[in-house]
UniProtKB/TrEMBL annotation:
Membrane topology designation: Multi-pass membrane protein
Family: Belongs to the monovalent cation:proton antiporter 2 (CPA2) transporter (TC 2.A.37) family.
Chain segments annotated as transmembrane: 6-27, 34-53, 59-78, 90-108, 114-135, 155-173, 185-207, 273-291, 297-318, 330-351, 363-386
UniProt entry keywords in alphabetical sequence: Antiport, Ion transport, Membrane, Potassium, Potassium transport, Transmembrane, Transmembrane helix, Transport
Cellular localisation: Membrane
RCK N-terminal domain segment(s): 406-522
Region (Disordered): 569-596
Keyword Cell inner membrane in annotation: no
Any matching Pfam family: Na_H_Exchanger
Protein's recorded name: Monovalent cation:proton antiporter-2 (CPA2) family protein
Domain of life: Bacteria
Length: 596
């Protein structure tokens, strides 16, 4: 499809955007999720549908960058310590799932009469789940950080690593290829280790100082360019030595997870990730040959049922055997039963090495795509069972949804005021996330042992990345009144359930915050001034009970004055500044009588 005089891919872009704008909202309205909408849009506009676009293969090469950016963002959410704690899920549960599922599917293929190499490649290719698909479902449901979400991610991460030995297996099985010498194998291993070391050292010692320098320039577009450069550059290094690009981006993300710029990087990359992920799923949908599926519907349908059934059983069994509750094991089983995008890569490599013919590979690809389409249906089925059980008042742990209950606080602004607030909160063992837009403050706070991230509180995407949607309370400790006002509006609009506690710079700011309906506000100098005044009275010989009476009276008159100023203006209630506190504990009625 082309339009004379238009830029390259102009007409194709319009078709892609129009199809997704129509299909995705319909799919979400039906409760199927956006991924099914993208796949349906691709099937409709692709060469096997309305033929509005050509082959999806060219689009897929560009769209794979969406998977790269997705793994980079996921890496940002996992610091190395957390990743190490997941080693059992990654190398134990993940490895067992791939091996057991692959061997079982291989055995089924051999029993069906397929050759050794075809059964082996098909079995292990279909044992891999879709990282892009599963993570998209978990993120849409807000369950990536849940117990089962983390276990599912560990399995997916191992599967991304597994594509490397599986591609090596294809090369070994290829006819006419002699075995590699020891020196060739050693040389390839050294190259791979050097690439990994380059990514690790760069991410550990070079990236943070560079971002610190760029942040001082306050040029958002440069920060955005640098974020994309880090994600794609690390992916390119890994790809150059034969490893997965997504794995390289994930490693870079993990190394930057403890960086002060974590949340800003995530917010900057998110729009590109979302767009490219949508393009990826459209391209996958375009490659679905509907005519081929219809001609071989019994083979494809049987294949889909076998793949999803075998994977689901192994996922549930292994999850239960390694400590998951029945509820979590079922959630893992219905989230990861589909075939994955790396199966396309493996089957394409097998075709190039004369191990699979085109018709078999296309049928296997159709099984992968249809299993993707049925995964949201399986998730909806489990949700339906949960709702039915809930409606009947049945407590069924096998279909319960996991929810986190730990309260968290987002501290915005980490100067002297914010640091003291953080100290109070962490003294209770509460989890806090703090952001600030001044690199010097961030560096100082980090030296004091606080994890503070670079972020602009006037950007809704940065607030979301920093966890405003999950925070029970947002502590606004910013000095700039205008910045605070804009941030409050964004939080009220995007995250209405969060409590908003504010530091007010002066009395006028208090009035503004009161009108905005914040949950709590306090002038930054008021309490310290009261304490100062108490100390002065004590030094002058005033009895402690008299000081308590004065403090109570001053606070009461201050509240009265604020109430008048809200309705009558800044200069109302000035007479309340100059009254002498009565020599007994005043009540409200006595205050009113004295005022008359």
């Amino acid at each position: 499809m082309a339009t004379e005089g238009a830029p390259p891919f102009f007409a194709e872009s319009i078709v892609f955007l129009a199809a997704t704008v129509v299909a995705v909202p319909i799919a979400k309205r039906l409760g199927l999720g956006s991924v099914v909408g993208y796949l349906a849009a691709g099937a409709a506009i692709g060469p096997h549908g309305l033929a509005l676009l050509g082959s999806g293969e060219d689009v897929l090469h560009v769209a794979e960058l969406g998977v790269v950016l997705l793994l980079f963002v996921i890496g940002l959410e996992l610091d190395p310590h957390k990743l190490w704690r997941m080693k059992r899920d990654i190398f134990g549960l993940g490895t067992a799932q791939v091996i057991l599922t692959g061997i079982t599917l291989y055995g089924i293929g051999r029993l069906a009469g397929y050759p050794f190499s075809t059964s082996l490649i098909a079995g292990f290719g279909l044992a891999l789940s879709s990282t892009a698909f599963a993570l998209q479902i978990l993120q849409e449901r807000g369950q990536l950080s849940s117990a089962y979400g983390q276990r599912a991610f560990g399995i997916l991460l191992l599967q991304d690593i597994a594509i490397v030995p599986l591609l090596a297996m294809v090369a070994i099985l290829a006819p006419g290829e002699g075995p590699s010498t020891f020196s060739q194998i050693a040389s390839e291993i050294m190259i791979v280790l050097a690439a990994v070391a380059a990514v690790v050292l760069t991410g550990r010692y070079l990236i943070s100082p560079v971002f610190l320098f760029l942040a001082a320039s306050r040029a958002r577009e440069v920060m955005l360019t640098a974020a994309l450069l880090v994600a794609l550059g690390s992916a390119g290094i890994m790809h150059s030595v034969g490893l997965s690009m997504a794995l390289g981006a994930f490693l870079a993300g993990v190394l930057l997870a403890e960086s002060s710029f974590r949340h800003t990087l995530e917010a900057d990359i998110e729009p590109f990730r979302s767009l490219l992920m949508g393009l990826f799923f459209v391209a996958v949908g375009m490659s679905l040959n509907i005519a081929l599926v219809m001609a071989n519907w019994l083979f494809v349908a049987t294949g889909v049922l076998i793949v999803m059934g075998v994977k689901g059983i192994f996922l549930w069994t292994l999850s239960r055997a390694t400590g998951s509750s029945n509820s979590d094991a079922m959630r893992v089983a219905v989230t990861l039963p589909q075939g994955g995008e790396f199966a396309f890569v493996l089957f394409t490599a097998a075709i190039g090495n004369s191990l699979l013919n085109y018709s078999t590979a296309n049928l296997l690809n159709a099984i992968v795509i249809l299993s993707m389409l049925l995964t949201p249906v399986a998730c909806l089925g489990l949700d339906w069972l949960a709702e039915r059980a809930k409606a009947r008042g049945i407590e069924n742990p096998s279909i319960e949804t996991f929810e986190e209950a730990t309260p968290t606080v987002l501290v915005i602004g980490f100067g002297r005021f914010g640091m003291v607030v953080a100290q109070i909160l962490t003294s209770e063992g509460l989890e806090i996330t703090a952001i600030d837009n001044r690199p010097d403050r961030i560096e100082y706070a980090r030296k004091q042992g606080y994890k503070v991230y670079y972020g602009d509180a006037t950007r809704a995407d940065v607030l979301a990345a920093a966890g405003a949607g999950k925070a029970t309370l947002v502590a606004m400790c910013i000095e700039n009144d205008k910045v605070m006002g804009k941030a409050i509006d964004l939080i009220r609009e995007g995250f209405p359930d969060a409590l908003i506690f504010c530091r007010a710079t002066d009395r006028a700011h208090v009035l503004d915050l009161t009108k905005r309906g914040v949950d709590f506000q306090i002038r930054e100098t008021f309490e310290s001034s009261v304490v100062f005044g108490r100390a002065a009275l004590e030094a002058l010989g005033t009895p402690l009970d008299r000081i308590d009476q004065i403090e109570e009276d001053v606070r009461y008159r201050d509240e009265e004055r604020l109430a008048e100023q809200l309705t009558q203006g800044m200069y109302a209630g000035a007479d309340k500044l100059h009254k002498v506190t009565p020599r007994r504990n005043p009540t409200k009625d006595e205050h009113d009588a004295a005022a008359e």
